Amino acid sequence: xxxxxxxxxxxxxxxxxxxxxxxxxxxxxxxxxxxxxxxxxxxxxxxxxxxxxxxxxxxxxxxxxxxxxxxxxxxxxxxxxxxxxxxxxxxxxxxxxxxxxxxxxxxxxxxxxxxxxxxxxxxxxxxxxxxxxxxxxxxxxxxxxxxxxxxxxxxxxxxxxxxxxxxxxxxxxxxxxxxxxxxxxxxxxxxxxxxxxxxxxxxxxxxxxxxxxxxxxxxxxxxxxxxxxxxxxxxxxxxxxxxxxxxxxxxxxxxxxxxxxxxxxxxxxxxxxxxxxxxxxxxxxxxxxxxxxxxxxxxxxxxxxxxxxxxxxxxxxxxxxxxxxxxxxxxxxxxxxxxxxxxxxxxxxxxxxxxxxxxxxxxxxxxxxxxxxxxxxxxxxxxxxxxxxxxxxxxxxxxxxxxxxxxxxxxxxxxxxxxxxxxxxxxxxxxxxxxxxxxxxxxxxxxxxxxxxxxxxxxxxxxxxxxxxxxxxxxxxxxxxxxxxxxxxxxxxxxxxxxxxxxxxxxxxxxxxxxxxxxxxxxxxxxxxxxxxxxxxxxxxxxxxx
Length: 546
Hints:
This protein folds into two domains: about 20-245, no CATH class; about 265-540. It has helices at about 20, 25-90, 95-125, 130-155, 170-250, 265-335, 345-410, 415-475, 485-540. It is an all-alpha fold. The chain is rod-shaped. Helix 2 (about 25-90) packs antiparallel against helix 3 (about 95-125) and helix 6 (about 265-335) packs antiparallel against helix 9. The termini are close together. Helices cover about 85% and strands about 0% of the residues.
């Protein structure tokens, strides 16, 4: 498992689109793109409305000028047509005087219509240079035509204010000026209408071009902004996704490169923090696993030394049992010989000396056995201390596994893989705790058996001491043996019972030593299992690369 050189430094880059926009929240980026497109639409709409309004004003102006002027000219021509019709009716040979009066009235009425239309048209065109010459031509021809017509048809005198020519030629010239003038006016109005229509068409084309260009530029900017936003978001999501995939594969050394400070940047920073926290947890688990493995190895050494001490204790206990059997046999002989005490004082004295020597040897053996059993108790205490260390390590491992489970739960989908590892670590820690608890119980049983053995050996020592005292009393009271035969027999019987107890207790010590050996064998198996669990824990965390 590799290790990184230190915490990841999270840097913020600036792309070509500008760091300010890149650092804005995603909602603001999307809203900015939509807002830009909306502003383009509003701008194009306002521009279109403005240009359409201008076009409408132009059409309204054309209506006010050209259409109304054409209406005045049409009214004027209509009046002239009525006048010509009245003149034809007046000039008919078959016309009666009444018909002539009617025709004359029609001519006067038509003149009024023409004059009114001419006045309206003159007021409408104002000082228009394009219309002024044909208008003057029409007015001049119309004025002369009315005078010459009245002179010709109605036989009216020529007005004094009229200085023009008279006669048919003048009359025809006035009619020509009148007709040419109105034709020129209509041509001028048609020309102005064409100009207004051309101006409206040009305005429409200009407005359409401006709207198309504005729409194209706005949409291009919007598409460019959308492309930059999508590219930035996609790049950051890919970076975070790569870090998460590496984390799922056990690689804790690959960071999520942060380029912006929006929601994705915050998520990448959170992934980096979780990754570093997970790496620290894995480091801690590795350290504790190695400590657990080393402790299990030390515990294996301690149990090996305890096994050697237990074997020595068993050997000493066997020696003590043999000595106790010998003492029991001697006491039995003494008990049998007490019935013949009177005849075998010397034999009794010799046996008493032998019994004293054996008792002294038994005291020595019991003291040696007591020291051995004391060593066994010290070794049991050492085992208990080591087991406490293992228990503390298991509890710490369990706590680390719980913390890892909590961190994995906080990471959500990103921590599922590590949650499984944390669960396995927790199970291994609990199994280690159960194994150390079993060792503690067995060590407690060894300590209890050792205490019982020490107490039994102390009783043996007391009994052997009493036997020694009895033998000394027997040796010193050989001269009085005859008088005290009954008392000696009773004492010898008690000694025989005590020696039997000694033999039983020494046998129990040997049995306890054998039980200690069996318990130590189980402890060795448990230590081996604990070492295997530590190895499995190291294997589980070694899949992570930090």
